[in-house]
Amino acid sequence: MTFADEVKNAVTARAALLVVGVLALQLLFIASYVGALHRPDPTDVPFGVVAPQQVSGRLVTQLDGLPGGPLDPRAVSDAAEARRQIENRDLDGALIVSPTGATDTLLVASGGGTVLATSLTAIVKEAEGPRQRTVRTVDVAPASPDDFDGLSSFYLVVGWCVGGYLCASILAISAGTKPANRQRAVIRTAVMALYSVAGGIGGAVIIGPILGALPGSVWALSGLGALVVFAVGMITLALEALTGIVGIGLAVLLIVVAGNPSAGGAFPLPMLPDFWRAIGPALPPGAGTWTARSIAYFHGNAVTGPLLVLSAWAVVGTALTLLLSMRRRDTEEPGRTATAPGGGAHPA
Questions:
Q1: How far is CA 84 from the centre of its chain?
Q2: What does pTM read for this prediction?
Q3: In whole angstroms, how large is the CA radius of gyration of the chain?
Q4: pLDDT tens-digit profile of 96-120?
Q5: CA end-to-end span of the chain, whole Å?
Q6: HEC string of 109-157?
Q7: pLDDT in tens, 163-186
């Protein structure tokens, strides 16, 4: 046998396609992470302005016209309303202009991302300089001192996502990517649900009581973790049932390549390019990171949308997994045969 024949026998077309697919996944990984994170610039950050009526309009226009458009300013009635909107995560910061003195107050929320809070401080101080104003910064939702750069929420959600698709991948590798029947699909779904509960509680206990890295309700974080793990696991099972082993790669593409850099973890959403800012909230890592920060630092505010996103992934993944297992059974039954004791075949 020649070397060429040996290569043909050793490298099947399927194996070659899978290798090409892995190469594409690798290049997309590099492009996504570097594209999202190589130049974090604040753009259109929701920002409130509280100022006397004769100053408010002019100041909003001035801040709106800053080079690069870092702020999306809007007038707010008073300081209490500005604080309320920041705590509800409608605003990322607000400038309170003193009507009498020369010292203004900048409200930020480092719990939503310390990098963004620091950037807002620098932007506002530079903008206020020509007006001969002094800026005092007040952090209304400070990140924990044990939560460096506010990254703990992101890493917690990444761990939950990794657990979800790894568990689904192990189920596929050990028992076949496509469930043999509806009962098997139900069993896999039940296993994923139990695993999700354990993973959610475990992650919340580690990051809270054990490490003290993140404040907030342990049970609320446990529930979030169970939902994140289940959503990622079930969509991975669905992709595996739909495409076979390729589904594992598709799950990595969805969660790791697209989801992680757009999650607002290392840099909050207003600091990401438009594409990643648009897709982040619709993917499990982004929805999970936002919710974890809200639980930890914002009294659980503004979580309805992200929880609906996670629930939608969980429902779609579960429904597809069960429906595809039923379709497989229906397509096999009409022509299914079983081998008779004598070596012949008869309808099963």
A1: 25
A2: 0.88
A3: 26
A4: 999 988 899 999 999 999 999 999 9
A5: 42
A6: CHHHCHHHHHHHHHHHHHHHHHHCCEEEEEECCCCCCCCHHHCHHHHHH
A7: 999 999 998 888 766 766 788 889
